[in-house]
Write a structure and sequence with these properties.
The protein is mainly α. The protein has two domains: 1-67, no CATH class; 70-107. It contains four helices and no strands. The protein has helices at residues 9-33, 35-41, 45-64, 72-97. α1 (9-33) crosses α2 and α1 packs antiparallel against α3 (45-64). The chain starts with 8 loop residues before the first helix and ends in a 10-residue tail after the last helix. The relative contact order is 0.12.
Length: 107
């Protein structure tokens, strides 16, 4: 009997990549906004960002491995919703980036 949800390895990799992007982006933006933090981190900024990102990915992977089996359908629907929201956001970004004219809702 399986007590935990078995996520597809590709999905786990996708989640890991998402966490990597978000955490590293946030830390680097924080360092860019705060000159004192950038000065404090100095030449080790990339190494520290890499370490913190790796810790966040490991924490996320550990939590994904602990999802109870009865939450299988909820996890599937949450991941599907997340993917659909990302696709929609990237669609709006592409419409604005390519300066597509047409519908007035995207002014």
């Amino acid at each position: 009997m399986n007590l935990y949800v078995q996520l597809d390895p590709a999905l786990k990799t996708f989640i890991g990549l998402g966490v990597t992007f978000v955490v590293s982006y946030l830390i680097l933006q924080l360092a860019a906004v705060s000159p004192k933090l950038a000065e404090y981190l100095g030449q080790y900024k990339v190494g520290i960002v890499t370490w913190v990102t790796a810790m966040a990915v490991q924490l996320t992977q550990a939590q994904l491995d602990k999802i109870p089996a009865q939450w299988d359908e909820v996890v599937f629907l949450a991941m599907k919703l997340f993917a659909e929201v990302l696709i929609t956001l990237f669609g709006f970004v592409a419409i604005r980036a390519f300066n597509i004219k047409g519908h007035n809702a995207l002014r």
